[in-house]
């Protein structure tokens, strides 16, 4: 944000703050904090409320240069913390990046939770499962496994109404890489690290889903072939940064993982048809 403003890249700056407000604050943190504030322990409630206040206050300051009048109105309605007697957002200090608060490992872990929750919402919407969803998440590394086991409640709160309520019969089961995948499920690859499965036996039209899965498998296979061509084209070329090559390799790994998952889906659907 600071770099964009310093370089007078205002379109970039507005895109950054929009993504923060919409995707990170409203769609993610506020949704995640609801269950903690409503049913968490006293310590969890206090922590979630304090963090939410900090996030809202910082978000108002970030967007103030672009929306001065609206942010001033909202700032005046936001209670001040003890000892803070700043009379107006116009003279409040602008947020600064704090290196000591940067935690790449925590960011990576939370990104995994977000990506898995998006896949769960995608599956429940695609197959019109509105309640009693039975979800399985299989992780390929011990780090990813520990992350999801520790944050199952956050995952549940971010994954939509079909799995949000524990008393509705919905479940989220975390599986390791060596655990057998349950039968009767559809699967969606999150990345090379994670796969989301949802039990659908008896709830869907098998023939239609087999055709759909085969179409997706064909498209994913073509994507892998294209990605391999991109990487082969990079070999021997000078001036291509290593981080760019690494990103393209990651895309290939994710694509290959998706192909493997979709092949498994087709096989499981065809096995269900024979049961």
Task: Explain what you see.
The chain has 275 residues and is α+β, with helices and mostly antiparallel strands. 63% of the residues lie in helices and 8% in strands. The chain has helices at residues 2-6, 10-39, 42-63, 68-77, 104-126, 142-150, 152-158, 161-164, 206-234, 242-274; strands at residues 134-139, 171-175, 185-189, 194-199. A 4-stranded mixed sheet has the order 2-1-4-3. α2 (10-39) packs across α7 and α3 (42-63) packs antiparallel against α4. The termini are far apart.
Distance N to C terminus: 56 Å
What does the main sheet amount to? 4 strands, mixed
Number of strands: 4
Report helical residue fraction: 55-70%
Strand order of the largest sheet: 2-1-4-3
Poorly predicted runs are: none
Q: What structural category arises from helix and sheet content?
A: alpha+beta
- CA-based shape: globular
Global Rg: 23 Å
Strand content: 5-15%
Number of helices: 10
- How do the SSEs run, as a string of H and E? HHHHHEHHHEEEHH
Give the overall pLDDT as a whole number: 86
Number of domains: 3
Query: What oligomeric state do the depicted chains represent?
Result: single chain
Please sum up the structure shown.
It is built from 10 helices and 4 strands, in the order αααααβαααβββαα. By secondary structure, it is an alpha+beta fold. The protein folds into 3 domains: 2-101, no CATH class; 103-199; 205-275.
